[in-house]
UniProtKB/TrEMBL annotation:
Source organism, top-level taxon: Eukaryota
Domain Enoyl reductase (ER): 41-302
PANTHER family membership: QUINONE OXIDOREDUCTASE-LIKE PROTEIN 2, SHORT-CHAIN DEHYDROGENASE/REDUCTASE
Organism annotation: Paramoeba aestuarina
InterPro entries from the UniProt entry: ADH-like_C, ADH-like_N, ER, GroES-like_sf, NAD(P)-bd_dom_sf, Zn-ADH-like_protein
GO terms for MF: oxidoreductase activity
SUPFAM superfamilies noted in UniProt: GroES-like (SSF50129), NAD(P)-binding Rossmann-fold domains (SSF51735)
Name the UniProt record assigns to this protein: Enoyl reductase (ER) domain-containing protein
SMART domains in alphabetical order: PKS_ER (SM00829)
Length: 302
């Protein structure tokens, strides 16, 4: 917030671009110095440290420096702090896989893409922040300043707040990548969505409905059935004991689809039982999209 107002004020003065950047105030950053035994311990281990704007000398062509306005903290972030995500971020690092704010500095390649100093952007995707595997891994959004590649920048409506933008890009960026770019969903297909009321489940439901798919959603709670129906979900399967359960929901899917099975399964829950039963629910040549593994988080060591 302070960095944004400082930039706006300074841009109205006759200073060089470098002088404007050098005048930005010292901010703060959340730092993970060691992994926690569990998520609660990991959060208690976090340190809040002073942070100067990233040195221009450390940037590479394609980088963008962002004055962070808001960062979303999700399950992925807290699991990373335990070292049990699909890959371990190198220590130390700043959490915050998706965030938004104002552009404070651009490199030539970023400028060629149309990104300009002073504009608002959100950062998401696998090539930025602690989810990435390269040099941007240490720069998460739980800080005053962050560095990201221009390919991770997402523009958003000027009427949105920083918080709305940061929250939107996590779920919808994930859902779009899985459903459209990888799953190649088509109008008229039938999809089964697990974890449909979660952070990546609701975006998947709404995206599939808007693109003309028939949506079957699972939930463990009968109280969430009405919520899903209000979203527009065509069929809701409440997983309970004895039936339908995690080990038998494919029968319900076959019943709904006239014995054919669904075209796709979008699984944000994970676990052997759901995966096996999801395969049974698919039609021949169906696609299984493994989106997350909330039921089995300890995956870093295989």
């Amino acid at each position: 917030g302070d960095s944004c107002s400082s930039l706006t004020t300074s841009m109205n003065m006759t200073k060089t671009r470098q002088e404007i950047y050098d005048s930005l105030p010292t901010g703060t950053q959340v730092v993970v110095q060691k992994y926690g035994e569990n998520q609660r311990v990991a959060i208690s281990n976090l340190q809040i440290l002073p942070q100067k704007p990233p040195p221009i000398s450390e940037l590479e062509d394609g980088d963008v420096v962002v004055g962070v306005g808001s960062s979303q903290v999700v399950w992925t972030d807290t699991v990373m702090m335990t070292g049990q995500y699909q890959h371990k971020p190198r220590l130390p690092f700043t959490p915050g896989t998706t965030y938004s704010g104002v552009v404070l500095w651009t490199t030539p390649k970023a400028e060629k893409s149309g990104i300009r100093v002073g504009e608002k952007i959100a950062i998401a995707g696998a090539d930025a922040g602690p989810r990435s595997k390269g040099r941007h891994q240490k720069w998460g959004g739980c800080a005053s300043y962050a560095v990201a590649p221009y390919t991770a920048a997402r523009r958003y409506p000027h009427t949105w707040s920083d918080g709305e933008a940061a929250s939107f890009v996590y779920g919808y960026d994930t859902a779009y990548h899985c459903l459209v770019e990888r799953g190649k969903i088509q109008k008229g297909e039938t999809i089964l969505i697990h974890g449909a009321t979660g952070g990546v489940g609701i975006p998947a439901v709404l995206m599939c409905l808007s693109l003309g798919l028939t949506v079957i959603a699972t939930t463990r709670s009968a109280s969430k059935e009405k919520f899903l129906k209000n979203l527009g979900v065509h069929h809701v399967i409440v997983l309970s004991s004895p039936s339908p359960s995690i080990s038998s929901f494919s029968k319900e899917v076959k019943k709904i689809t006239g014995g054919k099975g669904c075209d796709l399964v979008y699984d944000g829950v994970g676990g052997d039982a759901i995966t096996v039963e999801s395969l049974r629910a698919l039609k021949f040549k169906g696609r299984l999209l493994i989106v997350g593994w909330a039921a089995t988080p300890n995956v870093a060591e295989g």
